[in-house]
Design brief:
Organism: Sphingomonas aliaeris
Structural class: alpha/beta
Number of strands: 19
Strand content: 15-25%
Largest sheet: 12 strands, mixed
Distance between the termini: 69 Å
Radius of gyration: 26 Å
GO molecular function, one term: acyltransferase activity, transferring groups other than amino-acyl groups
Shape: elongated
Number of helices: 14
Mean pLDDT: 93
Protein name: GNAT family N-acetyltransferase
Pfam family, one: CN_hydrolase
Low-confidence stretches: 517-533
Length: 535
């Protein structure tokens, strides 16, 4: 009889594919407490990949701890959990921070005997030592305080008596046994933590290998993480059939791949040329139904090209009817690993909503690629700063903006807002638009574009915040190399540090998961022509 394979327990760095397992663990470890969103856990992993650990037992995630680097002045001052963790996304991470800050620790109760918490603390401590940080800090829950409240003089007294061994608190006791020392109490740290009455113990472990009298001198190395971006300024033209359209698209994919681009992006609604070979002029709803028939074939072709040419394709956008019967404007992202992702347009323009009955999507999230997380904002969405901020909180460093504008005013709205998104989020933003005209296809009469690749405005970047841009209104491909490491430097040591300098104590974005799609009423009919409206 073969011997049974011994059970295995592994502690390793968390990766994006662990997100679902981490959420399952946390819901089990903290029943009755609102769980993270998938975007928050993705943000923790993407913003500081080294600092997140999972414990895996027989293929199942049974432990998770999340961390970020924080400047000493912030870590030692009074704070709450939401402020210091960037609302749970880990977006307060400072690459030059001299302390490791604990965001989360969760262990599956069913496997407590495996000393999972201790193993995770050891992994976190080893990281602090390897990075030569001053130590580790976090706010520790005090779940016994509410019960003992009537018998102590306050949270400070309760903490002192637990430390002296006069009272027992399972969480604080565990942290004390792992070498952490309380240096005070944090008020309203987790207001919803009723067992702790909202208080937390301000816990510290000091790295014995670092001289506390020596001033920290962390600098972000000027590394190179080069990514080549290609944006296609696509000519709207009549085609004889589906194959002819695919041939036009594949030509540009081939060109971008020949230049060894990592990404190629097409414009919003670039697939509307598929209506040009219809024998009769279609009503808007007939056009949507016909485009829905083209959806699966065009996604299959884009995925084939991504694999064949070894390039990540941002497939502009394609209007289509989805399973619930609503009409959506969707960007299909086909990666060179064979995976296919989609991003709905969140804000249809008034013209889109009225003529085509397009409704806004409900979620915007990062897409994991072989060169890191990216985001997609379709045209008008770039004019809503909350969306780009959510993507960057989740770790996006490149945001792609496929757009379709009929005139210069519409184009400039998208362009100016995209440049603002690059500056305020310290990220790269890539625009791709249509040019020319498409006679016989409603809403695509004329096009105006000047596609471009935009950067933050600081020393490592192009003088005007423009890595490259196309000439106006001609069909062309624009290519530029960008260095993702420059973003890391700018966020930590730049002249301004928009992400780090946010007033987390004053404002934050609350995202309602699974929101309701809004439709447009007859009274809100837009003025003017049936043009897309252009952002």
């Amino acid at each position: 009889m073969p011997s049974k394979t011994p059970a295995t327990l592994e502690v390793r760095v968390a990766v994006p594919t662990d997100v679902a397992g981490i959420l399952t663990l946390i819901s089990r470890a903290y029943p009755g407490i609102e769980n993270y969103s998938a975007g928050q856990v993705s943000g923790q992993i993407n913003n500081f990949p080294q600092g997140q650990f999972v414990a895996v037992f027989e293929g199942t995630i049974v432990g998770y701890c999340a961390s970020s680097r924080i400047d000493e002045a912030i870590a030692l001052s009074a704070h709450d959990w939401a402020t210091i963790t960037g609302n749970g996304f880990g977006s307060r991470h400072d690459a030059t921070g001299d302390w490791l800050y604990g965001i989360e620790m969760a262990v599956d109760e069913r496997h407590r005997g495996l000393r999972i918490g201790k193993r995770l603390y050891e992994a976190r401590r080893a990281l602090a030592e390897r990075l030569e940080l001053r130590g580790i800090m976090f706010g520790g829950r005090m779940p016994g305080y509410a019960r003992a409240k009537a018998r102590v003089a306050g949270p400070e007294d309760y903490l002192a008596r637990v430390e002296a061994g006069e009272l027992r608190d399972q969480v604080i006791g565990f942290q004390l046994s792992n070498g952490f020392t309380p240096i005070g109490v944090l008020e309203r740290y987790l207001p919803f933590d009723k067992a702790s009455d909202g208080f937390a113990a301000h816990m510290v472990w000091r790295n014995p290998y670092v001289d506390p009298t020596e001033p920290p001198a962390f600098r972000v190395p000027r590394d190179v993480e080069s990514v080549r971006l290609a944006t296609v300024q696509f000519q709207a033209r009549a085609v004889d059939d589906f194959a002819a359209f695919v041939k036009n698209v594949e030509y540009f994919v081939d060109v971008a791949a020949e230049y060894r681009s990592d990404f190629v992006v097409f414009p919003e609604l670039f697939t509307m040329s598929l209506l040009s070979f219809e024998p009769e002029v279609l009503t808007p709803m007939q056009a949507i139904d016909r485009m829905t028939e083209h959806r699966a074939p065009i996604v299959a072709e884009l995925s084939r090209m991504a694999l064949r040419y070894n390039i990540n394709i941002i497939g502009g956008s394609h209007p289509t009817r989805v399973e619930d019967g609503s009409v959506q404007n969707i960007a299909y992202v086909c990666l060179r690993d064979g995976s296919i992702h989609s991003q709905e347009k969140i804000h249809p323009t008034p013209n889109e909503a009225y003529w085509w009955k397009i409704k806004g999507g409900n979620s915007v999230d990062v897409i994991q690629t072989d060169v890191g997380p990216i985001g997609v904002l379709i045209c008008y969405d770039s004019e809503f700063p909350e969306l780009a901020r959510r993507l960057v909180d989740e770790g996006a460093r490149i945001i792609f903006v496929p757009f379709c504008t009929d005139n210069r005013q519409g184009y400039m709205r998208v362009r100016y807002c995209a440049q603002a998104r690059a500056i305020e989020n310290q990220c790269f933003v890539v625009l791709s638009g249509n040019v020319g005209n498409l006679p016989g296809v409603d809403n695509m009469d004329i096009q105006y574009a000047q596609s471009c690749i935009l950067t933050p405005c600081d020393f490592p970047f192009a003088r005007d915040g423009i890595a490259a841009e196309a000439s106006e209104n001609i069909e062309t491909v624009t290519i530029a190399d960008v260095n993702l490491a420059d973003l890391t430097w700018a966020r930590a040591e730049g002249t301004v540090r928009n992400l780090a300098d946010r007033r987390f104590d004053l404002y934050r974005i609350e995202w309602k998961e699974g929101g309701k799609r809004e439709s447009i009423t007859p009274e809100s009919k837009p003025r003017g022509t049936k043009a897309p409206g252009g952002g």
